[in-house]
Amino acid sequence: MASAVYDRVAALLVDRFGVPVDDINPEASFEDLDLDSLDLVEFSLACEEELGVRIEDEEAENLATLGDAVTLLESKGATVQNS
Amino acid sequence: MPLLDGKRLLVTGVLTDASIAYAVARVAQAEGAEIVLTGFGRGMSITKRIAARLPSAPDVLELDVQQPDHLDAVAADLRERWGGVDGVVHAIGFAPATALGGGFLTAPWEDVATALHISTYSFAALGRTLAPLLASAGGGSIVGLDFDATVAWPSYDWMGVAKAGLESCCRYLARDLGDQGTRVNLVAAGPLRTMAAKSIAGFSEFDAAWKRRAPLGWDITDPEPVARVVCALLSDWMPSVTGEIVHADGGVHAIGADLR
Asked: Which structural domains are found in chain A, ordered by start?
């Protein structure tokens, strides 16, 4: 799963949430990544700030994997600004 | 003149923008208040992000109500900052998972004690600690968030017992701070879909009950009706109201059987 959104989300998980780089893959669940409900709230706020779209609570409940989260963000129009 | 013109308010309990306390902070700012928030532990970074989304980003102080030195530090900060405090919003509650969602008969004392410390005792502790600052402001107003504790609810378990204690704390704090002119009241809210609600396994049963019983109807996604009542109690417009529980619940507390 190579995309600008995926790369940004992966970087965010490593930099902000201390997830080991080697643990990150599209099939990883948030549980695999050791993210609990508070982390997920912060993750969705960070996504909103960095990617311009929000993961709603109801949507978060249906996300099984990191790949699902990226697909959802992209379907909602997430874009990565080139800096 | 706006309802809370120039009021200096401490608002605890903002975690996400779905928090009841977030709606209180937003309405209070719109009504002219100056506010400071508190956050807690790992939630601090979330509270700071959310604070930045308010019309005017307030400072966030760290307050773990189980740490007496945190309470003292908040009081010292507010004394330095303002000299007095016109209002305090207590929107703090927690029960370990063992004490909720069917754990009434099995929760160990340590977990129940945690629930009572954070959800019940902290109301008195916060009021006691900030009492001199409220007195400096001429009395001020303390408002806590309640969920009707006169009856037993599905899933609510020890949190319900903690809320019953909170209701009693409100009356005793009103008794002891009355001489200095401080009003102490609770708002018993209907169910709202907040982070706190997510930890209650049977939350959907509350939602269903409110659909059937609220004369005025009830929207579990809109904390503003509750926030407005909190702001009314913080204002100068309920001057001889203390030790009171105002139900902002669509009227459910008054109804004995399903309406629809």
From this structure: 4-75 (1.10.1200.10)
